[in-house]
Amino acid sequence: MAFDGNFVHALLSELEVLRRGKINRIQQIDETSLIFKVRSAGSNHHLLISAHPMYARFHLTGQKYEFPFEPPMFLRVARKHLEGGIIQEIRQLGNDRRVEIHIQSRNEIGDEIRRILILEIMGRHSNIIITDQDYRILDGIKHLTPNNNSRTIMPGVGYTAPPTEPKLNPRTEEIRSLPGLIDFNSGRVNRQILNNTEGFSPLFLKEVEHNAGYFTIKNIVPAIQQTLSQAEDIRPVLYNRNDKEIFYFTPLSHLGEADETYDSLSGLLDDYYHDRYRKSLIRQKAQDYLQLIEREYDKVARKMDKLKDDLKEAEEKDKYQKYGELLTAYMHQVKPYDATLEVIDYYTNEPVTIPLDKHLSASDNAQKYYKRYSKLKARENSAGIQLDRAREDMEYLSNLLHQMDSITTEEEVDEIREELIEQGIIKNNRKQSKKKKQKIQLHAYTTSNGLDVLVGKNNKQNDYLTTRKAQNNHLWFHTKDIPGSHVVITRPAAEIKEQDILEAAMLAAYHSKAQDSESVPVDYTEIRHVHKVSGAKPGFVTYTDQKTVFVTPDRQKAAAMESGRTD
Question: Which of 63, 139, 194, 456 could form a disulfide with 462 if both were Cys (CB 3.0 to 4.6 A apart)?
């Protein structure tokens, strides 16, 4: 990607449609991104502005976004000073990734005021700042305090530009002085050009160097000017090189033929960033639940350790029972204040030394041992039952952790969340509970013989697929004793060939915790032999009449078989 100063220069011509437009509404997507709804030339436009550390940008958008935020302070300030205002000018500062949007508005008493919206697109240092006409800051979406910062971004402080070394604007005559700033003998000429020229990216300089052949003191400026002149032909393009996507506002001859072209720069940015933003949002939401599941897993593991300690301690119970019996039998030999009693164990004919509480009578000592025996026996029974339940919980949570690794959609995140609520792991939020439930969608694949294969990627999908979607004579697959997905070939078992069975088994292994292993055992049987256990955790089933095959997961083959998602 290359959202550089040259890209900004090209993008501003596209945003001219907003000039004289009225800002009707401002809404906030997340902590760093806003949508400005602008009415201009009889049409509605949505301007997205983001200071996201990875996806900072601005462009027109046609995507639909949710607005989950209660208005934070910056949004309140933006609405107060900018809503209802008219966009007078959108201008780039030099050839940099800094833009000013000048807005004519009115204050509470109806007087005309001028506000400036400053966009700084600088990676993790990106910011959105609102100032008055004298460049006094009204607020910034990211505050910078005087401590440990080279400048201050706080309400009431005068705005200062980001601290950078002076650079030449390549779109002015300043660029002619560039050769004098380059030491051709020290090498790394590209890096020196970047350090001395405003708004260039390494991608653009590769194109300049491609046009020049190699840099010399005579051709460096003409090569830059020629490439900038060629770049006036704005044709948004997307390249896919070595599994890396690269976009630019104009074709780049050093990259060859573009893989995709777009009608507008905003369309390009919308397509490129929205998918990444959505995946980032999914990862963030999933990460919150992942940490929750990991904490539950650790809690169950600690509980199991404690229960095992209880069982180990309970192994002493028979000894205490024997002490009680022997004390009862030899009670007449106990003398007051004895600390021990040595007797012959009539079970083994071996001598036994029984510790005594010298402050208690022989009878009370015997009762003490009987009570300890009873207590340990009860603890053993209880710990055994709880340990079995804890093992089930551990298996369930381990399966959930595996499922979290394969989440790819917001619907899957919501399904995991619903399950965690149902299991009492998280509390329900009434506002979110009113949200309309999405229809469960399964992941669909096709075998080489054209048979449909459905895969559930979480417990809700697994339950739906196995107990509701599949028919009794369909073939069901699952990795043997390994957490993984339920997989079903939606065809009567009698019609399924061995090749289809092996391919479906491969999918079951691929969608399991053994994804990176070889020769993974996969059981398969007809749905009629798969049963949901009453009261069991989601996704848990028992099955009989199974056969087992050994397969090796194949990522490329799985991708080739994938045919989308289905209800």
Answer: 456
Query: Helix, strand, or coil here: 3?
Result: coil
In this structure, the strands spanning 98-106 and 112-120 are: antiparallel
**Cα 351 from Cα 63, distance rounded (Å):** 86
pLDDT at 529 over 90: yes
Between helix 202-212 and helix 220-230 the angle, nearest 10°, is: 110
Nearest Cα neighbor of 130 from 155, 112, 98 is 155
Tens digit of each residue's pLDDT (9 = 90 or more) over 404-456: 877 877 778 888 888 888 888 887 765 544 455 667 889 999 999 999 999 99
Q: What are phi and psi of 32, to 5 degrees?
A: -125, 0
Bridge partners of 392, per DSSP, are none
The H or E element that residue 355 is part of is strand 350-355
Separation of alpha carbons 193 and 182, rounded Å: 7
**Which residues are CB-neighbours of 335 under 8 A, at least 6 positions away?**
none
Amino acid in the structure at residue 484: G
Paired with 25 in beta bridges are 37
Q: How far is CA 13 from the centre of its chain?
A: 35
Residue 125 sits at φ, ψ, to 5 deg, of -95, 10
Q: Burial-class residue 350 by CB neighbours within 10 Å (0-12, 13-18, 19+).
A: exposed
- Contact, 417 vs 433, CB < 8 A? no
Q: What share of the chain is helix, strand, coil (3-state, %, to 5)?
A: 40, 25, 35
Contacts for 211-217: CB closer than 8 Å, 24+ residues apart: 211/253, 215/182, 215/184, 215/189, 215/190, 216/184, 217/179, 217/182, 217/184
Return the H-helix or E-strand segment holding 25: strand 22-30
Contact status, residue 341 vs residue 330, Cβ threshold 8 Å = yes
The token pair at 520 is 């993974």
- What one-character DSSP code corresponds to residue 120? E
Residue 128 contacts by C-beta under 8 Å, 6 or more apart in sequence?
Answer: 32, 34, 49, 51, 74, 117, 118, 119, 120, 140, 141, 142
The tokens of 177 are what? Answer: 């002085």
Question: What DSSP assignment string belongs to 519-564?
Answer: SEEEEEEEGGGEEEPTTPPTT-EEE-S-EEEEE---HHHHHHHEEE
Distances (CA, A) of 282 to 49, 190, 272, 392: 20, 38, 16, 28
474, amino acid identity? H
Count Cβ atoms within 10 A of the Cβ of residue 224 and give its class: 0-12 exposed, 13-18 middle, 19 or more buried: buried
Residue 481's contacts (CB-CB under 8 Å, 6 or more residues apart) are 521
**Cα–Cα dist 76/80, whole Å:** 6
At 433 the pLDDT is: 44
Place of tokens 């460096």: 220
Instruction: Determine if the pTM surpasses 0.85.
Output: no
**Window from 100-109, 432-441, 518-527 with minimum mean pLDDT:** 432-441
d(CA 217, CA 223): 11
Specify the DSSP class assigned to residue 447. Answer: -
